[in-house]
Amino acid sequence: MEPTNNSPKSHTLLYIFLPVVILISPILYLLLLTQFSITNYPTSIKPTQEFCVEGYFLFPNAYTIKSSFPVEIETKDKITLFNKYDVFAKVICFKPTTLLPESKQYTLNLSYLNFPNPTVFQKDLTITTQEYPDIMDVRFTEEINNNQILEFSIDYSGNHLNYFINLEDYEAPCNQESSTILCDISSLSLIQGYDYDLKLVSKYNGVLIKELKIIPVQIRTAVQIEKSSIKNKSVLQDKNIYEIDITLNKEILNTYNISIRDDSDGEVKLESSVVGNLLAIYPKEEFKQNTTYYLKLNDLTGLDGSTLANEYVLEFSIDDGPKISWTNISNSFSTSGNIVLAFNQDIKNPQNIKNYVKIDSSTNYSYSIYKNQVTINPSSSLGFCKKYTVSLAKGLVSNTSLIASSGATYSLKTTCKRTVSIGTSVQGRSIYAYYLGSGSKKIVFFGSMHGSEANTKTLLNKWVTELENNTDRIPSDKTIIVIPTLNPDGIANLSRFNAHGVDLNRNFDTPSWVTGTYLKTDFYPTGGGSAPFSEPESKDIRDLLYRESPYLTLSYHSAAGYVIPTNSSSAVSKANSYSQLSGYTYVNPGAEGSFSYDITGTFEEWAEGRGYNALVVELSSAYYDQFLQNSRAMWKMVEQ
């Protein structure tokens, strides 16, 4: 039997080693829990990033963790006793509670049971923050739409920062999907066709963190209406509109909102189609006459993504049926003339015009229709200087089936002017006298005795028109005779004299008549004619006065600015009135001295010698007719 090895030496070693092991095991344990329990951790983190430390952590809640930045700590991948006590964990995660500055070092200190010393029982982790996220790529071109979503990629993602597109004092928020930034710029209300510099910025809790990029952009031009087959605010003369074409400045998508409503908000059924840049609208029902419609177009998008800058509104209306736009009815209508009624649209033909047009109640007529014109041909001549009523009843039909909803009434007065040729000139031109009124007392106005005084012709032609338009003002006991042109050859030849070279106002049979005459310092050997009344024109005015025996005759000349009467109280009185109303200077009868040359064989001298009351009216201008200056005085001569 071998002896047992229980020598004192082996026991001594055991007794010595066991206490040592017992003494150093806690130290080894602490070293294990601190220096050797961590297997992996990041040395660089994103400023907004949660990060984790991996290892073997026994009773993780016994660790004391000190951080140089604010964090929230969470243990993961752990074993729990009684669903309450954490016994073991493999991961401790750290989430910064604020945005960390970029490119800065931080430390994490881990100790077990909060042993302060020696540091061998602590573990320091050094962590550096990366730079803030920056732009990696811009995923759109410089030309964009004002409602576009701009897409950017950043170098890494994080959920602490918010991104915005800034334009001066305005900003549009962006959404982040991983490392992609999506920015809807529609809220910036950018104007189509303009250029802008947009800024992409990052913020944290509303505070600017970084200006990532300035992006110059050009907003595409808006979709615009180039033309429409119906002009805005036009009045259409047809209830049946089968197509309305709208041409745009660019091709468009077949998505839009369009409507046609009337002024009482009733909607018109329609269809539409798009071909390139042409939008065709097809109304499917008849429009109503005398109604306004509004075509509205919005939510329209071009193929390039641009849109209408504003809602397009086209206003148009349907006419209220045929209306007279012009007629030749006047206050001096020819007794044998046809009445012409021109309408604002073509008239349906055939239709019975007599159902709608009446001339008084008894005047019969025939008629014709051509396009927009109805011509009325009275069966017999209308009465001289007579008033008629021409009435148009409602119901007349246009060639587009619009029905006139209203009528019209016109006052027609046949001419009170008779035109009489009182003779002819040397060269065969007719000399016309115009008669207005039907009274026994007659007054004569004549001008252009000298062809170089054509403004007197213009004056008296305007006087004829004035009388025609105001025949009711002519006293019933008066007849007015107007001869605008006594010397038509002189007017045609731009000469003071007639075609024989005779001054007609030196050709009257008076005691002063002579063959040779003066005009200022110029002498004309045959200016007075070969004998008194040698000229047909002077004979014509003489014979007129013999026939008509006027109570007053006015002879118009230019341009001395005088009124000179014959030597009778009646003529003097009328000359004074004429002078006051016209502003011309009154000159006493026979005062030829007002002219600087001898005046012989004149009409006024002859008229006075025959007992006629006569006035010479000298206009103050050689060029202007001065009708407004004379009209009050002329009416005074007629009415007194």
What labels describe this entry?
single chain; 640 residues; alpha+beta; Immunoglobulin-like; 5 domains; eight-stranded mixed sheet; 41 strands; 15% helix; 38% strand
Question: Can you characterise this structure?
Answer:
The structure is a single chain. The strands form nine sheets. An eight-stranded mixed β-sheet has the order 9-11-14-13-12-15-16-10, with no helix packed on it. The protein has an eight-stranded mixed β-sheet with strand order 32-33-35-34-38-41-39-40, sandwiched between helices. A four-stranded antiparallel β-sheet has the order 1-3-6-5, with no helix packed on it. The chain has seven helices and 41 strands. It is α+β, with helices and mostly antiparallel strands. The model has no long low-confidence stretch (mean pLDDT 90). The chain is elongated. The relative contact order is 0.06. β28 (365-370) and β29 form a beta hairpin.
Report the count of strand segments.
Answer: 41
- Strand residue percentage: 35-45%
Q: Helicity range of the residues? A: 10-25%
The name CATH uses for the topology of the largest domain is Aminopeptidase
Low-confidence sequence ranges: none
In the CATH hierarchy, what is the superfamily of the largest domain? Zn peptidases
Enumerate the strands of the largest sheet in spatial order, edge to edge or round the barrel: 9-11-14-13-12-15-16-10
Largest pleated sheet: 8 strands, mixed
Question: Outline, from the CA principal axes?
Answer: elongated
Multimeric organization: single chain
Count of DSSP-assigned helices:
7
For the record, what CATH class of the largest domain applies?
Answer: Alpha Beta
Category by helix and strand content: alpha+beta
Average pLDDT level: 90
Radius of gyration: 56 Å
Number of domains: 5
CATH architecture of the largest domain: 3-Layer(aba) Sandwich
Task: Calculate the terminal CA-CA distance, rounded to whole Å.
Answer: 186 Å
